[in-house]
Amino acid sequence: MNFSSDNASGAAPEILEAIRAANNGTARAYGEDVWTARLEKEMARVFACDVWVYPVLTGTAANALALAAVVPQYGAIFCHEGAHIATEECGAPEFFTGGARLVTLASRDGKLSPGQIERALAQFEKGSVHHAQPAAVSITQASDFGTCYRPEEIGAISSLAHSHGMKLHMDGARLANAIAFLGCTPAEATWRTGVDVLSYGATKNGAMGAEAIVFFNEEHARDFGYRRKKAGQLASKMRYVSVQLVCAFEEDRWLRWANHANALARQLAMRLATVEGVEIAWPVEANAVFAFLTDALIDRLHARGVSFYEWNAGSDGRRLVRLMTSFATPEDDIKRLIEAASG
Amino acid sequence: MNFSSDNASGAAPEILEAIRAANNGTARAYGEDVWTARLEKEMARVFACDVWVYPVLTGTAANALALAAVVPQYGAIFCHEGAHIATEECGAPEFFTGGARLVTLASRDGKLSPGQIERALAQFEKGSVHHAQPAAVSITQASDFGTCYRPEEIGAISSLAHSHGMKLHMDGARLANAIAFLGCTPAEATWRTGVDVLSYGATKNGAMGAEAIVFFNEEHARDFGYRRKKAGQLASKMRYVSVQLVCAFEEDRWLRWANHANALARQLAMRLATVEGVEIAWPVEANAVFAFLTDALIDRLHARGVSFYEWNAGSDGRRLVRLMTSFATPEDDIKRLIEAASG
Amino acid sequence: MNFSSDNASGAAPEILEAIRAANNGTARAYGEDVWTARLEKEMARVFACDVWVYPVLTGTAANALALAAVVPQYGAIFCHEGAHIATEECGAPEFFTGGARLVTLASRDGKLSPGQIERALAQFEKGSVHHAQPAAVSITQASDFGTCYRPEEIGAISSLAHSHGMKLHMDGARLANAIAFLGCTPAEATWRTGVDVLSYGATKNGAMGAEAIVFFNEEHARDFGYRRKKAGQLASKMRYVSVQLVCAFEEDRWLRWANHANALARQLAMRLATVEGVEIAWPVEANAVFAFLTDALIDRLHARGVSFYEWNAGSDGRRLVRLMTSFATPEDDIKRLIEAASG
Amino acid sequence: MNFSSDNASGAAPEILEAIRAANNGTARAYGEDVWTARLEKEMARVFACDVWVYPVLTGTAANALALAAVVPQYGAIFCHEGAHIATEECGAPEFFTGGARLVTLASRDGKLSPGQIERALAQFEKGSVHHAQPAAVSITQASDFGTCYRPEEIGAISSLAHSHGMKLHMDGARLANAIAFLGCTPAEATWRTGVDVLSYGATKNGAMGAEAIVFFNEEHARDFGYRRKKAGQLASKMRYVSVQLVCAFEEDRWLRWANHANALARQLAMRLATVEGVEIAWPVEANAVFAFLTDALIDRLHARGVSFYEWNAGSDGRRLVRLMTSFATPEDDIKRLIEAASG
Question: Under a CB-based contact definition with an 8 Å cutoff, are residues D303 and D316 in contact?
Answer without folding.
Answer: no
